[in-house]
Amino acid sequence: MKKFSKCLALTLATAASLSLVSSCQPAEVVNVFNWGEYIDEDLNAEFTKQTGIVVNYKTYTTNEMLYSTMKSGGASYDVIIPSDYMVARMIEEDMLLPLDFTNIPNYNDIDPSKKGLLYDPDNEYSVPYTWGIVGLIYDASTTSEAPDSWTALFDKQYAGNILMFDNPRDAFAIALAVLGYGLNTTNESEIREAYALLKEQRPLVQAYVMDQVFDKMGGGEAVVAPYYVGDYFLMREDNPNLGVVIPKETTNTFVDAMCIPKSAKNKTAAEQYINFMCSTDSGYRNAIAVGYSTPLVSVYEKLKANDELEDICYPDDETMARLEVFINLPPETRKLYDELWAELMIDN
Q1: What is the pLDDT of residues 157-195, one digit of tens each?
Q2: What is the pLDDT of residues 85-134, one digit of tens each?
Q3: Beta-strand relationship, 224-228 and 127-139
Q4: What is residue 39's predicted lDDT score, i.e. its pLDDT?
């Protein structure tokens, strides 16, 4: 179990967490690596209050950034939160530890529909954190009508006011959807056709973004953008003119899951943290704060009882049936994506 003096812990933990730790005693630490804007920030301090374990919390912007960080071995984290297809890749490459579910009793509250999924069929390595959908966000004050298609991102009337994902998997998925192809295609000609569409779009794009989308859409600097529906609600707090739709073609639906990498130094604390995040109180506070769909049955029921469910976050079965889950693509397809994305970004 890793121990640190308070002086070193100051470089590792949030001020809120450290205020709850004795100034003289060494602090046990759990290192957590998560997406940006993806937690009720008070929960880490609450975990420290309940357990005495300081949370060293850092963020990344894409699954690929998470993967390269973990693969390089340059950093050690105890809890990571990759998306489904990246969980599958990490399992395949022996990068994750099996979980001891006796230390995660709150796992019993996970919706059965979010268990036994393709990325972790035997429920050995992951616990769902949230799930969600990629949507099309638009500024209603500058659009004549609400768009209903990904083609809005390729429309010349929005030239200079279009934002696009700054990662190949999500960007190519949108182009593939416009072309009527599956989001998990391994057909090289289809992928190259999607690349040609993205290249045609490029002069229209104001910026390729990840977390920068919050400032740009929230500040009224762009008109249309693809992003995760849960984050739309945070943007809308800054810009009430924003709307969001699930495009008519298809889009990605995903599960982000808590995992413990093989390089973890404190597995016991990691499982404590995962269990804490799966409690009804933590799950409810997190769902309200981040806007994403909850995999916890008790939290869903509490949101429903309080009339706090957003319909777009919990679509009907007909809508869900036309959405697609990303799978872990073969190495040769991932390489093609990377090569084409690098070509697209050369002059960016």
Answers
A1: 999 999 999 999 999 999 999 999 999 999 999 999 999
A2: 999 999 999 999 999 999 999 999 999 999 999 999 999 999 999 999 99
A3: antiparallel
A4: 97
Structure tokens at 36: 């940006």
Which of 13, 82, 2, 75 minimizes the C-alpha distance to 41?
13
Q: Across the strands, what pairs with 30?
A: 55
Rounded alpha-carbon distances, angstroms, from residue 113 to 109, 268, 300:
11, 27, 13
Q: Which CATH architecture has domain 132-253+320-345?
A: 3-Layer(aba) Sandwich (3.40)
The residues, any chain, with a CB within 8 Å of residue 33's CB and separated by 6 or more, are 58, 59, 60, 66, 69, 75, 77, 79, 80, 81
Q: In the chain, which residues fall in CATH 3.40.190.10?
A: 3-126+259-314, 132-253+320-345
The CATH number of 3-126+259-314 is: 3.40.190.10
pTM, entire model:
0.90
